[in-house]
């Protein structure tokens, strides 16, 4: 294998993607472990190595006695072609062993456009693509991650899915596997035991779906199989495992930085946002633990950047003292502190100012909709005054570039709402004229739009998604409305959004389409240079499926393909929030005033029954 690999690596781009051997990787004695787990990231090394979830689960599994967790990523097409030519099976980076000798392959499904990469990896490992074709010798193929809240389109490819947070659930699964005989366990019995004895595991083969036209007509399950699989959460983030040592990438990756996770969940309840609902309930980590984890990581990795992540970082209740401490530490050592997802409020702008020092790159805000009416519909609780005041503050401190993110195709959107995006950008320009202290630099306002995709477990899960033709028209309306020279307009390719929309609310009938598209060459679909829209459309055609059927509105009493999954937030709450959306009523955030919990239902997953708000 080594000689073959050496030969191949001379002929492919970025060979460091395929060599492993990074500082901080976990190496164990094969003879001292009885369970081997290959953590498979269905995208490139650069993307996977930047993912915090992978880092956490790699640490959690390797901290489990008798388990060795290794890593594998999707090869770039040049490497895939070379591997096929040389007959080299996909291998784990740590040991170099082919994936088919492992007990488990665990895929992290972060986005729908990574589905064909799962097939590439299974096929390169010589593992049958469909779960029903695998035998007792094959590894158990599992997945987790955000897409598993509705992974029905790929259900046929997986033996088992981990729903929710995995750092406690996966070690439990490993212990059950060992108890049932490990490699010699009866696989079907093990999967059934995982679904019935453990919490948070969904075994697709134990459920049968019947369809009636575009609808799901019935979901049947075997005896003793749970009607709903409730996601797992980690109750106490302070004591949960968190990696302060990890494989440090040996080549350039998307984000090469130390990361601290401030809290899980979101207090906001934006009605289009899936993560804002599925990551609930709200649990905060204490500033002391965060500061310690930050310092340990920086000392271990030598990184020059520390990121404070969470869904809406500025909602962390201890942000000010934490920033004071970290800015002092990082400032002395010339380490950049980065804070994604800040809001347009005064503390956030003050913080941006302190973090950036003299280096004023652009500031980013995501009003998501141009008019106040539509922002109320989507529950994006930010007003034009707040946005302009934040911009004014930044301009007065020397910033001269603003990025504004919006969505097109939101429920109830009219052309006036779209034109309001241009008007808002004009107001930003006007604010700059009034507040900028140095106008010589000029101003650049970048307006970016993406297409709204209705996602499961959001109040808009029942809403229709707009067609590509309609989106093109909306883009033209906005393009015509933007006249200011300082405003630049970018929009996201609707073709990938269209497919994401199909798969996000898709069902099991889409698996043959994914297989067909993959067989005809679809690879790395999230990468513009590889995305083959025409091949996808032909695959739908061959399988006799009209993808537009999946964009339709769902009836409120309709059985949804993801009904088996319980993400914590209740359907009753989602329906209430949807009704409020159509009346233009906002749902206050969970901290708006004492006791303002809106009863989304997620806190019932906590032992104390109360969020950290
Ligand atoms: S249970 Fe209440 S406080 Fe917790 S996330 Fe839901 S609405 Fe917010």
Q: So what's the overall shape?
A: globular
Q: In angstroms, what separates the terminal alpha carbons?
A: 54 Å
Return residue spans where pLDDT drops below 50 for at least 5 consecutive residues.
none
Average pLDDT, all residues: 93
Kindly name the structural category: alpha/beta
The CATH architecture of the domain at 2-230 comes to 3-Layer(aba) Sandwich
Describe this protein's structure.
- By secondary structure, this protein is α/β, with parallel strands linked by helices.
- Among the domains are: 2-230, Rossmann fold (3-Layer(aba) Sandwich), CATH 3.40.50; 237-341 and 583-613, Transcription Regulator spoIIAA, CATH 3.30.750.
- It has 19 helices and 19 strands.
- It has a 6-stranded mixed beta sheet with strand order 2-1-3-4-5-6, with helices on one face.
- Helix 9 runs parallel beside helix 10 and helix 17 crosses helix 18.
- It is globular.
- The protein starts with a helix and ends in a 31-residue tail after the last helix.
- The mean pLDDT is 93.
- It binds iron/sulfur cluster.
- Iron/sulfur cluster (SF4) binds at residues 265, 280-282, 590, 597-600, 602-603, 611, 613.
């Amino acid at each position: 294998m080594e000689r073959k690999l050496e030969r191949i690596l001379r002929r492919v781009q970025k060979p460091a993607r395929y060599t492993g051997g990074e500082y901080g990787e976990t190496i164990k004695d094969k003879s001292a472990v009885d369970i081997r787990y290959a953590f498979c990231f269905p995208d490139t090394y650069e993307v996977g190595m930047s993912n915090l979830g992978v880092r956490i689960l790699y640490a959690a599994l390797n901290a489990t006695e008798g388990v060795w967790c290794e890593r594998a990523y999707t090869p770039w097409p040049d490497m895939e072609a070379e591997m096929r030519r040389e007959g080299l099976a996909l291998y784990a980076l740590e040991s170099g062993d082919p994936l088919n000798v492992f007990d488990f392959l665990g895929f992290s499904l972060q986005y729908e456009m990574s589905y064909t990469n799962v097939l590439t990896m299974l096929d390169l490992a010589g593992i049958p693509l469909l779960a029903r074709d695998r035998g007792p010798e094959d590894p158990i193929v599992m997945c987790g991650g955000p897409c598993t809240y509705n992974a029905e389109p790929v259900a046929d490819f997986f033996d088992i899915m981990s729903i929710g947070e995995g750092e406690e659930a996966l070690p439990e699964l490993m212990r059950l596997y060992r108890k049932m005989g490990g490699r010699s366990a009866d696989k079907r019995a093990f999967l059934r035991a995982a679904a019935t004895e453990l919490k948070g595991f969904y075994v697709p083969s134990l459920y049968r779906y019947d369809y009636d036209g575009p609808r799901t007509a019935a979901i049947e399950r075997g005896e003793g199989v749970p009607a709903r699989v409730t996601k797992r959460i980690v109750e106490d983030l302070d004591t949960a495992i968190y990696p302060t040592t990890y494989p440090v990438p040996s080549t350039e990756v998307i984000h090469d930085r130390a990361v601290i996770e401030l809290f899980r969940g979101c207090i906001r309840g934006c009605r289009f946002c899936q993560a804002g609902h599925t990551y609930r309930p709200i649990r905060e980590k204490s500033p002391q633990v965060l500061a310690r984890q930050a310092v340990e990581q920086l000392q271990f990795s030598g990184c020059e950047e520390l990121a404070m992540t969470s869904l809406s970082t500025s909602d962390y209740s201890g942000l000010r003292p934490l920033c004071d401490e970290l800015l002092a530490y990082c400032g002395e050592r010339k380490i950049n502190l980065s804070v994604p997802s800040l809001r347009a409020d005064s503390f956030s702008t003050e913080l941006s100012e302190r973090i950036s020092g003299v280096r004023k790159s652009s500031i980013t805000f995501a009003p998501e909709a141009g008019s106040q009416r539509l922002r109320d519909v989507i529950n994006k609780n930010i007003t034009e005054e707040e946005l302009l005041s934040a911009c004014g503050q930044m301009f007065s401190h020397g910033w001269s570039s603003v990025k504004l993110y919006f969505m097109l195709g939101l429920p109830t959107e009219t052309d006036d709402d779209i034109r309001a995006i241009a008007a808002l950008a004009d107001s930003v320009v006007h604010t700059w004229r009034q507040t900028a202290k140095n106008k010589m630099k000029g101003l650049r306002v970048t307006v970016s739009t993406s297409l709204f995709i209705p996602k499961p477990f959001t109040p808009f899960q029942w809403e229709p998604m707009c067609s590509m033709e309609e989106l093109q028209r909306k883009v033209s309306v906005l393009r015509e409305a933007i006249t200011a020279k300082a405003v630049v307009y970018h929009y996201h390719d609707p073709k990938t959004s269209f497919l994401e929309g199909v798969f996000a609310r898709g069902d099991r009938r889409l698996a043959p389409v994914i297989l067909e598209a993959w067989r005809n060459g679809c690879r790395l679909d999230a990468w513009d240079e590889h995305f083959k829209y025409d091949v996808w459309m032909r695959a739908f055609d061959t399988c006799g499926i009209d993808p537009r059927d999946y964009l339709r509105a769902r009836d409120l009493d309709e059985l949804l393909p993801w009904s088996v999954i319980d993400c914590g937030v209740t359907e009753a709450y989602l329906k209430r929030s949807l009704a409020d959306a159509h009346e233009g009523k906002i749902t206050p955030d969970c901290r708006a005033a004492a006791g303002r919990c809106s009863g989304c239902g997620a806190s019932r997953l906590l032992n104390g029954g109360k969020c950290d708000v």
